[in-house]
Amino acid sequence: MTPQANIQRANEKGGAAAGLPSVREIFQIGALFVRVLLSFFSTPILRHEVLSPADLLMKSEPWRQAAAPDFEPASALLSDSPTLSLA
């Protein structure tokens, strides 16, 4: 099929942008995405909780030297990610 035929076929289907979502649909999908994220993360956001296990690294070398002797990580339940990367 020639390029001219492709252009003519696209124009018959509603223009070159046929099949693409409209701006309104993109905003609706974005708003839905924001609502879903807020429903999952509203409690930690409102409580100012840390959702990162980065403080667990303070229990490992070489960061252990910089931590206080009585340091305890606040996010001990999120331990898989940083401890697996150290292996």
SSE arrangement, N to C = HHH
How many strand units? 0
Give the averaged pLDDT, no decimals: 76
Strand content: under 5%
Number of structural units classed as domains: 2
Distance between the termini: 56 Å
- Major sheet description: none
The tally of helices reads 3
From the spread of the alpha carbons, the general shape counts as elongated
- What structural category arises from helix and sheet content? mainly alpha
In helices, the fraction of residues equals: 40-55%
Low-confidence regions: none
Q: Using the CA coordinates, give the radius of gyration.
A: 25 Å
Concise overview:
The protein has 3 helices and no strands. The chain is mainly alpha-helical and 87 residues long.
